Each structure stands twice: as C-alpha cells, then as structure tokens.
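Below is how a single chain appears once it has passed through the pipeline. First comes the sequence as given, then the structure the pipeline wrote out for it. We keep one example in the README because the format questions we get most often are answered faster by looking than by reading.
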Amino acid sequence: MWDYTDKVKEHFSKPHNVGSVEDANAVGEVGSIVCGDALRLSLKVDKATEKIVEAKFQTFGCGSAIASSSVLTDMILGKTLDEAAKITNRDIANELGGLPKEKMHCSVMGMEALEAAIANYRGQGVADSHLHEDEEGELVCKCFGITDKKIERTIKENHLHTLEEVTNFTKAGGACGSCHWKIEEIIRKVHKQELEAKAEEKPKGLTNLQRMKLVQETLDREVRPQLQKDGGDLELVDIENKNVKVRLLGMCSGCQVSRFTLRDLVEAKLKEFVEPDITVEELRS
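Resulting structure:
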C-alpha cells in the first residue's frame, strides 16, 4: 500500500479548480485514456502582462494524477508564463509533500500539460498535441506510447539511473516488459553522454574544493546506486589530499569482498572521473 501525504489526500478528495476555463487562450493536453492517464489544462492568460489569471483542469487518472493537477493549478495562478515555465515535476511533487516513487509520472504529466499550454498560447503547438520532441522520436514502449526522446528527456531532468526509476517517472516498461532492454540502452547512452561532457569540463589540477565536489558527485552518481541495488551504501567521511576516506554501509559493511568493492568500483570510478592517481581508504566503525 502506498503512503500518501495528507496534502495528496486533501487535493484528491477536494480538488481545486476542476473544469474547463471559458474562453481559454492556452490549452495543453497530454496522456491518453488508453494509456490510463490523461490531463487537459486550460488557462486564461492576461495578454498585457502574460499572467495566468485562471486555471482549470480535467483529468482521467488515479488519485495522484488528480492531486498533482489540482496543486499545479494553485501553483501557477498569478504567475507569469515565464515564471510558470520554471516549475518542474519535482516542484509539483514537493508541493504535495512528496509522492510515492511509483506515482512520480503523475507530476511529470502535470509539468508536460503546463508546457503544452504555454506553447499553445505562444503559437508553438496546438491544443491537442503532445508538443515535445517525443512525436518525432522512436516508439519504445508500445503499451503506453512512450518514445525514446521522452525517456531521454526525463532521465536527464530527473537524474534517473535505473529501469525502475524510468518506469516510475514515465510508465515506460510498466506493462509487457518487452522494451526493458531498450530503456536500459537509453539509460546507458544518456549517462555516457553526461560523463563525456563532464570529462571535457573537468579542470586540470584540481583545487581541494573542486576535488571534494567531484568526488561527492561521482560517488552519488556512479557508485551509490550500484551499491544500493544490493542493499548496501557508502558515505564520504573525509578527503586528505588525494586519499578519499569512505565508510561502507548496509550489506556492504563488514562484507568479506569489501576490498574488491573499494578497488574495482569505488576507486576505479574516482580514478576515471576525478583524478587518475586518487586512492580510497575504508574506515570501519
């Protein structure tokens, strides 16, 4: 059973701004009833100031979809289009006090409906389009109509690392499972691009502050997700020059093969993405 916050329950049981704005001049529609979730967001935008003066929604979906749509309308009322455009799906989820990880796709749908409505107002799309570059992409998940472009975009924006996370945020791969291999291929592709970009940006001759930042980023991005898959984890304790001191946690703590984990995973990744002569030392409690 999923654990919903009181605010999610409130917006589900008594949603705000339900319906359709009369004389709306910005409309965004995303999702599909066939796929299980659909959202229509209609806005009245003041032409002189580009402020959103009225916002309403109609949705077909679960309680999280209703709550996400409801709180989104509250968030954007009174904002200019430029201000509203900065709202991310994580902002929507945070406004609700959080969403179960399996329901994060509901907040993504709200963000995409807002983007579609803004583009519709500015003449960049039509009300019944999905808007994004998704339409020109390759169809990956046939069950839910999700393209590679949407998956790539969601991975980048939300820093996703696993198939499960992609499914939670997009629903892709959540039915027959035949596209799992393709989704994992896209994850690897996006991460490779990001790592190559990071490598190009990496400065020569790091300061202590730069080294510390790169070490923490590498551990969070490259190491901890792999350890967490097996019930383990790791924390950065200290850095002395180029010697990184860490503590293994969970299933990794006291493991007989921890020295291989440190050498073949932790140290290898730090050598690859931080400095080639960096070393790793395990601190035991």
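The chain is about 45% helix and 20% strand.

See the next section for the split statistics.
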